[in-house]
Amino acid sequence: MAPGHVAYGMRAQYGLQVSPDTVMAWERGLAAPEARELTALAGVLWCSPGDLMAAASTLREHRLARGMTIDDMARRVGLDAGAYRRMEDAGRWRGNERQSMALADLLQLSLRDYVTATGQNADLSELLRSAVTTRWQAYVKPTAKLLPLSRQHLETVLDQLHTEYQSHMVATLNWSADADTGDAGRDFLDRIVDRFWELAHR
Question: With contact defined as beta carbons under 8 Å apart, do 161 and 185 qualify?
Answer without folding.
Answer: no
